[in-house]
Write a structure and sequence with these properties.
Number of helices: 4
Order of helices and strands: HHEEHEEH
Distance between the termini: 71 Å
Helix content: 40-55%
Radius of gyration: 31 Å
Strand content: 5-15%
Strand order of the largest sheet: 1-2
């Protein structure tokens, strides 16, 4: 039983996930600090509050609602999401697109029925293999197969 646990812990994806969580927590702390130190006071000045609005609150029948803390957390989340999207997701998508190969089209895979004998023939065929009648190739299949247009 302990050997199975050891194998699970030493598996590469568990270690990578743990490192990712640690780096994510550190990154979140940096973004929260940036938001608290710079963004929140700037928004407070723009809205007429005195500097930091994260302490803003209102009360209803003695219940206190600290909406400023929620706004500060929402701003920190938006900054974190934007930085991760523009600095991690977009560059990784570009790298993946650069290294992905274009799928080859199998010109015989797309089938259609012959209009004369109703046998299955390739969509790019100009003659039926069963009844030998001439048929018009499917223009979409011809363009996907990058074949010249036959007239």
């Amino acid at each position: 039983m302990l050997n199975g646990f050891k194998d699970f812990i030493l598996r590469g994806n568990v270690i990578s996930m743990a490192i990712g969580l640690a780096v994510g927590a550190a990154f979140t702390a940096v973004v929260t600090g940036f938001s608290t130190a710079f963004i929140t006071p700037l928004i407070g000045l723009a809205t007429g509050s005195v500097g930091d609005f994260s302490t803003a609150e209102f009360a209803v029948r003695g219940a206190i609602f600290p909406y400023g803390k929620f706004l500060a957390a929402a701003i920190a989340f938006m900054i974190t999401a934007a930085v991760l999207y523009f600095c991690v997701v977009v560059p990784m998508a570009k790298v993946q697109n650069r290294f992905t190969k274009e799928e080859e089209v199998d010109i015989k895979a797309a089938l259609r029925d012959c209009p004369r004998c109703f046998s299955a023939i390739p969509a790019v065929a100009s003659r039926c293999a069963h009844c030998t009648s001439e048929v018009e190739p499917d223009p979409e299949a011809v363009s996907l197969a990058k074949l010249p247009v036959q007239r």
